[in-house]
Amino acid sequence: MAGLDGKELILGVSGSIAAYKAVYLLRELTRRGARVTVCLTDHASRFVGPLTFRTLSGRPVLTDLFDPQSDAAVEHVALAERADALIVAPATANVLAKAAHGLADDFLSTLLLAARCPVLMAPAMDGGMWDHAAVVTNVATLRQRGVVVLDPDAGALASGLAGRGRLPESDVIIETLLGMLTAVRDLTGERVLVTAGPTRESIDPVRFITNRSSGKMGYRIAAAARRRGADVVLVSGPTGLTPPAGALFVPVDSAEEMREAVLQHLPKTTIVIKAAAVADYRVRQQATEKIKGKRDLTLDLVPNPDILAEVAARKTGAFIVGFAAETNDLAANARAKLEAKGIDLLVGNDVSRRDIGFDAEDNEVLLVDRWGGAEALPRMPKDAVADAVLSRVLALRATAVAKVRR
Fold first, then answer.
1. Spatial distance between the Cα atoms of 144 and 15, rounded to a whole number of angstroms
2. Residue 347 CA from chain centroid, whole number
3. Beta partners for 217?
4. 244 near 223, Cβ under 8 Å?
5. What digits encode the pLDDT tens for the residues 8-63?
6. What domains are defined for the chain?
7. Which of 117, 197, 209, 304 could be cross-linked to 255 through a Cys-Cys bond (beta carbons 3.0 to 4.6 Å apart)?
8. Strands, DSSP E only, in 167-291?
9. Which residues are marked as active site?
10. Measured between alpha carbons, how far is 381 from 403 in angstroms, rounded to an integer?
11. pTM, whole model, 2 decimals?
């Protein structure tokens, strides 16, 4: 599945202070190619006006079910039936109750009752409302009907209290949505080991050497593999990202720690994808105290272990994918690294460009394999790149097995 390209979505926004976060969610959904119609409750419009959502979606915003000037007002059932999914974010306790009991007294609750598509609700509420018996019962009822209701995040709430009630982050909502819309479960039975993010090599207790990496590409691959049915182990250096639900998350800091984690989980792995930006060097002797003063400083650096080459050399039978961040001669350098490491597939990208790669939401990569093939993928969101890489792995492996059998 190539992200959300061409998907017809309804985004319902209800009356919570978290309604402003729906603006960011809408922007991300449309950036990934979805066509989104926003439905605002009356209370939600008190927090964020319809004009904001109309500007970002490029479509009229649904507000008044009985507005005689609105064409959509008389075809709400058709709208619900042609949508690929309906998302409610934020979903207040009131909206959850209406949906659970089949009430339809405004546009959003009517759409929820008419919907025949997958429904995803991302709750947000204050105080101890999430744990109230009535809310617990309503959520259980919705889940029994097949509605996907996320658990809210814990943290500081608008009232000043702390607890569970914060709207889940947009990437969690989108990851869940992608899983709901992904019909292909072609990685069921596979165990996929993904490395992501940078490693940090300490100089002293407050300074370190690292490589640039946001970790986004590796995390998107882990999420895509999980959606497609794989058991996933994500070994990650320090990032600010949320690991995909259902994956075994192994946080590490240094290259040595990453190597140990990878080798520990390697024996049962069928696909290895090394997307981490492992620091090439570490300080031979880390200072035990902070180095004082501003002065010329010479660091004695030694190479870090080559985790990718070591994994390939163990010949466990796993299909091995590496990444190459290049600033010039992408095709030649990618092919050279593939052959030097002895791996099956290499994903190369040009990190000299600011619009792709480091920190960006998009990527444009070259796939080079050990059978002589090369495929250039156009610029696309990183979740689409992730699916393309996984599909390429399966296709190459199937072709290789077929050749051996012949």
1. 25
2. 19
3. none
4. yes
5. 999 999 999 999 999 999 999 999 889 999 999 999 999 999 999 999 999 999 88
6. 8-180 (3.40.50.1950), 185-286+298-405 (3.40.50.10300)
7. 304
8. 191-196, 200-204, 207-210, 231-236, 248-251, 271-274, 281-283
9. 211
10. 33
11. 0.71
